[in-house]
Amino acid sequence: MAKENKVSKNMAHAQKYDLIPFEDYLAGERDVEIRSEYVDGLVYAMAGASETHNTIAGSFFAQIEINLKDGCRVWQSDMKVVIRNKGQKFSYYPDTMAACGENTDDLYVRTNPILIVEVLSDSTERTDLKEKFDNYISIPTLLEYVVVSQDVPLVRLWRRRTSWEREMYRADDTFRLESVELDVPVQHIYRRVRKEVGLDVSR
């Protein structure tokens, strides 16, 4: 019970479903209307995202997609990443995920991302910055993890190269995604939600 309560606090934005084996979860996720994430034996339905959240995620995804080199792919929201960390199993749907090279035999899953991006909200902050952070950085292929605020123009970036030391970028900054060889102006990510994040305060 203690484990269940702890996970529930970390994923307060989601509705808890019944416990099922990991293999059954993976098979079941191929034909569902509501996507779920898997956290060490517990399955949670994913809550819907706001218009601002989806707009920011879409702008970031589009910039990566048009600049991505051949042999790599990028997905938004509907591709699972499967993680095995310290004997536990996890499956998440990152807001954006990029990977290069061949996939596993399961076309619904990726295990070798080089870049993961999550758009932060109040309900996902603890999960994205703690639980998911700890699990994502355990992926051997992952080079960078990015967390984007949806309330203010703020990007947090962690790199394997710097032993996951946090970098922070604000409205007037440009940051480099080494994993996909891309320079990203922070304002470009927020260009369609400038009013919502306070960049157009006079309007």
From TrEMBL:
Entry-linked InterPro entries: Nuclease_put_TT1808, Restrct_endonuc-II-like, Uma2
Pfam families xrefs: Uma2 (PF05685)
Listed CDD domains: DUF820-like (cd06260)
Domain Putative restriction endonuclease: 22-179
Protein name: Putative restriction endonuclease domain-containing protein
Organism name: Thiothrix nivea (strain ATCC 35100 / DSM 5205 / JP2)
